[in-house]
Amino acid sequence: MTDLDLALSLCQQEPEDHDKQTRFYDLFLNSNFYVPTQAEEGKSGEITADDSENAVPLIIDGEGEDFLMLFDREDRLYAWAGAEVSYVLVAGYALARISDPPLHWALNVGSDYPKQFLPDEIGWLRSVVENCEGEAESSSAPA
What we know:
The protein has one domain (32-132): Trna Endonuclease, Chain: A, domain 1, CATH 3.40.1350. It is 45% helix and 24% strand. It is built from six helices and eight strands. The chain has helices at residues 3-13, 18-29, 49-52, 74-81, 92-98, 119-140; strands at residues 32-38, 45-46, 56-57, 59-62, 65-70, 86-91, 104-107, 115-117. A four-stranded mixed β-sheet has the order 2-6-1-3. Strands 4-5-7-8 form a four-stranded mixed β-sheet. Helix 1 runs antiparallel to helix 2 (18-29) and helix 5 (92-98) packs across helix 6. It is globular, with a radius of gyration of 16 Å. It comes from Trichloromonas acetexigens. This is SseB family protein. Residues 6-124 form the SseB protein N-terminal domain.
């Protein structure tokens, strides 16, 4: 069980507990995720920074919705894929910044702690990131 698993589990046990929700989302935004990519056949493992600009994330169709797959551990990614696959490591806050509706996220599919993020939830996370970045810029500006 990872810290993210524990935070998610506590949220699910007490969905009305604002502190537990805040802890989970804060941990999510500050974690790195393995995002499977479409790659040339036979390539697997992490895509280097030089090649990451050209990496195309793997989007899965599930019941008519588009899902970006996210995994907090490499072994979970490989277990889901059934083989070693190519991936990029992306911070949660960066995912929130670049994801647009109607995209959904699927976290840790196949594990004991999966979570689906809906477009409204992703939009909210994006606004949290934008607000934090705006506050950081304001506080670092000369007076």
